[in-house]
Amino acid sequence: MADYTQMWTDLGLNHDNHNALLDNLGQAYQSIFMSQENRPEGMSYFDFVMSEAHGLRIQELREEQEAGRKIIGSFCVFVPEEIILAAGCTAVGLCAGADFAQEEVEKVLPRNTCSLIKSFFGFKLGKVCPYMEVSDMIVGENTCDGKKKSFEVFKEMVPNFYQMDLPQTKTPMARHMLKQEFKSFVEKLEEMTGKSISVEDLKQGIATVNAKRKALRRLSMLRAADPAPISGLDALLINQIAFLDNPIRFTEKVNAICDELELLIKETKGAKKAKAPRVLISGCPMAIPNWKLPSIIESTGAVIVGEESCIGERGQRNLTDDSADNLDGLMNAIVDRYLKIDCAVFTPNQERVNHIKEMSQQYNADGVIHYGLQFCQPYIMESFSVEKELEKQNISVLRLETDYSQEDMGQLSTRVEAFVEIIK
Amino acid sequence: MADYTQMWTDLGLNHDNHNALLDNLGQAYQSIFMSQENRPEGMSYFDFVMSEAHGLRIQELREEQEAGRKIIGSFCVFVPEEIILAAGCTAVGLCAGADFAQEEVEKVLPRNTCSLIKSFFGFKLGKVCPYMEVSDMIVGENTCDGKKKSFEVFKEMVPNFYQMDLPQTKTPMARHMLKQEFKSFVEKLEEMTGKSISVEDLKQGIATVNAKRKALRRLSMLRAADPAPISGLDALLINQIAFLDNPIRFTEKVNAICDELELLIKETKGAKKAKAPRVLISGCPMAIPNWKLPSIIESTGAVIVGEESCIGERGQRNLTDDSADNLDGLMNAIVDRYLKIDCAVFTPNQERVNHIKEMSQQYNADGVIHYGLQFCQPYIMESFSVEKELEKQNISVLRLETDYSQEDMGQLSTRVEAFVEIIK
Lengths: 424, 424
Prior knowledge:
Chains A, B: Pfam families: HGD-D. Chain A is an alpha/beta fold.
């Protein structure tokens, strides 16, 4: 393995903290991912990406920077990758999936803040996220109260912070506002790069991102098979890596593993046993390395057949129409595509429960586990009506609320086991 | 005392629950308010209003209804009373200041929801808020995540619910959006009443509300005196009653007590001792009967000299410019006035901390107690930067987080006593 010590020093990472983090990550990855049986061969690429997530991938990003590209970090699927690519920049998702430096974090944020927000503060304060440090600009967005207000503090900690406002509804006024915000974002990127985005650039950006979404959609659909050709953990991992990897290479590799999965399905070979209880996960996003709940679920013998999540279908479904031949038409298409995201910060948000029902049917789920990050008001509030509506259709639901700590592992396992027993 | 049993039955209140509530309220009022010494004589009117809050005032509202007026209930100072009055309707604030039917509430809302939201659900589910039941329309607003998402559930429980969208910033786009929302609100009221709002109507609405704000401002300014001529509890009560009483009568009574307070100040007579430690409260609103923290503070011998709160200066300061001679101009003035409200749901919200500093100076506060309702993310997150900025100016701050229960009374008292000891 290459020595990235100098690179990490250049980025200002804290060596001791960072080494401790990598050790923990490596161990977790070994015990959660590498212990799985019957993994598709195509996973070896994604294992490699994970092993080099803080190494080779960061080196690539720095090489891109040297060649003049800007790296744009963000925390939300509302930040349009089409536009970032069109501007000749690279989009990366920032670290927000593990507790770090929590004592420092609680000096600047309330204890009752969701783990995801505390996490990115911890990665910043502990100086352990190379993606944050390599980013030329970090984009925050006004989604939930937690992020919106915590960014007021976070922006003082990072040199180049850009805040994107978002609507709370899907009205024509909301669409008008989102379009303005995306136009301002274009202007900001053009100002950074010193060049204008052309129709061709935008078409190319849309094509790249659509291809990625299509590949991920293809992967999703293959999970409808019984036995499932890929574990939920591995599929989640691929969805997580979507936020870090080079999008073109990533798309190729996702399509390659889909080719393999198609063969496995023909041979009725599964990563999990046939007739395993099938679980759909719905709710808050699970950023790397937040594998706690999926690993509990699959350790019961159940298989996760889909993620109704930002890191999953909510974030990746819906293509952007690329048919317009002018910038305004393409921008309209981008706005329309993003306004379909059924995040719980919107009101009303009936589309989301419809989508959960649809996924549940499409992937033959036996039950839905609603994953709420503690103190995430939008998803936890919405989980009550989600449960009510799904149960009306005789879909079993388990509502869970947890954080990134390991303290409730026992309790979660007991509840998940009991639920899997009911639905199987 | 008149017998309102029939009226309460007509409104669909639950007698047992409602009697229990009134008993509790009466006892709390006796022990918290009536036990105070040196109260201005003018408080007798507000004591009377409180004693008749569920009786005579509701009877008046029903008489207004019989005469054709519509009653518009709301939970937020963003719902423009000028417009409601201009439409020939009456605005009332809805009950949200005490725990009620919490077991029922937690079936539809997460436990980790702020007390204020749980409270209005409890008042509805327990059928004990005559203001909710008498309202012809209830207006919710997209302020915080908690309210925005809980209204999706609440609107199923009330017959005539109207949701108002609000911006999260103060940009020109936000102003444009707010104006649209206020225009839609005008249309909704016109549709309800069957008549159009004229320039004269709107000017009259503005005049009535401005007069109320001026009277409350006058009351605020008088509290700068040492000794304070009125207790913080009584001043808060007046601010709370501002949401229930007839606005014209209320304004007269506030001005009357101000006349009295001016005389008391001339005679250096105080409701509290001279040189008492002076506390400014800042943070979440305190709806009737949420008197927990103010009564703890004043029982230490300190005096509360101002409320930087929606039920207090944040809600009532800033007049609406009434100089325009057309509807659009007046609507612009209303939008401009409301967009000055420095609620923590906005980002950034520097105006609020500036206002706290200003109030602190104006009312000669010795320290600021920041009141955060548990799980209210916007105010609790903002309290960190408020504390930091105030301490830079050598203003002592105590950040408290609490709910409507009585369980933490001991702990709160200890912390408040220690703080008062420091600042005196």
